[in-house]
Amino acid sequence: MIEHLAVAIVSAIAFLGAILLYGAFSPRRLEGWKFWLCFAAYCVLMEGNGFLANELFSVCGAVGNGVGRQTLYNVIRYALLYALLFRERPMVYLSVTVIFYSWACCIENLVVGAILIFQNNTVRSALENPTRSWLFWIDQLLILCGCAAIRKAHPFQPQTNGSQNRFAIPAIISLVSLVMAGRLQNGYYQGEINGAFLFYFSAVLLFADVMTFVLIVWNEKDERLKGENLTLTARARTQAESIEALSASYAAQRKLTHDFNAHLATLSSYLDNEQIKDAQD
To answer: CB atoms < 10 A from the CB of 155, how many?
Structure first.
């Protein structure tokens, strides 16, 4: 029972980090308690020992065992969570999920590599029973804190200009990083690399993943500036047309005023010369 509860808490922490990151880029489908109720239900159904989680893991066995199977399984779990709780287009679901899981794998490898440099036995025991290891909890908390920091630094703002395309290049970079992170894990399990190599190479991959976020933010700012520029251009064009119309109206009014003053001057001249008939005509 305790073991099952620990696995459920770990899944909830991982999913919480995911929705914090997703919320920085997409609007929620539900608000308030309905959102959190759906989140809790998903955590129960898709936690490590849940029925749906086991069935999904079995289906993912079609790609083989090991890191590849685990990667596909987790990407599908996080993508389904994204689709359930947030409104977005399918390509964005997949792209942001790949970015998130790539960050998670890089952080995990970074933590494992750091501990391997000092205590190899600690990592071995953590891999054998992760839910009872402080190392595994540190990994999950780092992911959660990283996603919370991104959410705070990048509050959601609706994008109207090419919002789907801004994830294309970052997703490709994160996909490459994810594949290489999986290769690093395999290398560690097979004894091909040591802790120092795992740590330093994971740091490089994590830096590349962080730069994907910077690239997304830069693309969003560029798109927002383009949208503002189009709006300002349209507003300036409208104002110019209004000024032209006002100038034309003012010129017409001046002409009418000039003609009216000339008419009054003529009448005044006729009256001064007592040319009543001419004034009447």
So the answer is: 8
